[in-house]
Specification:
The chain is α+β, with helices and mostly antiparallel strands. The protein folds into 2 domains: 104 residues, Topoisomerase I, Chain A, domain 4 (Orthogonal Bundle), CATH 1.10.132; 68 residues, Gyrase A, domain 2 (2-Layer Sandwich), CATH 3.30.1360.40.
Length: 187
């Protein structure tokens, strides 16, 4: 294969890997009934006028399977952190005892579990669409090379490689979704 096609294929694979990494990051945020500090990722609290990630102004730890503790490094940050968690609407009410904030995760109902699985599959569908769009862009780049004079056989091989990559990443997305569904549905 030509170096131009190899470049397109490796760029395509890199983008597909990014789409898969994004899916993994989104699936981690969907809680599966177990306490996980990453549930608070992306929640910003007001730190002296600047929106700051909670993880940068407090120590976040898991006390047990259903409890997360948030201990601010400065006592005056308790209220802003509590407010930020409440405003984030993650389905958990913070309990402030004056020095530490505890988040008690309620047990998931069957209905809520099914809702979370649907949300996982929606994220998976976004990832699949991204992978397919990346494939389309890669194939368009290969076809452009063919118009510029590259042999048809090399271009067909390049398109087949792009399709093989797509199949590989779509199956990886499916595996991630299956494992997350199992994790959520375990009572």
């Amino acid at each position: 294969m030509s170096t131009e096609i190899n470049t397109i294929i490796s760029a395509t694979e890199g983008l597909m890997q990014k789409a898969l990494n994004h899916l993994e990051a989104e699936l981690v945020k969907i809680r599966a009934g177990k306490a996980n500090p990453t549930m608070l990722d992306g929640i910003m609290a007001d730190y002296y006028g600047n929106p700051t990630a909670i993880g940068q102004i407090a120590n976040i730890s898991v006390l047990d399977a259903r409890t997360i503790s948030v201990q601010p490094w400065e006592k005056n940050m308790l209220q802003p952190i509590e407010r930020a968690i409440t405003m984030a609407n993650i389905g958990i009410n913070p309990q402030n005892d004056g020095s530490i904030i505890r988040l008690f995760l309620p047990p998931l109902t069957e209905e809520r579990r099914k809702e979370l699985v649907k949300r996982c599959y929606a994220e998976g569908e976004h990832a699949k669409v991204s992978v397919r769009n990346i494939r389309r862009e890669g194939i368009e780049g290969i076809k452009k090379l063919q118009k510029d004079g590259l042999s048809e056989d090399l271009c067909k091989d390049g398109e087949k490689n792009a399709q093989d990559l797509t199949d590989k990443y779509i199956s990886l997305v499916e595996k991630h979704l299956e494992s997350k569904e199992k994790e959520i549905m375990i009572v």
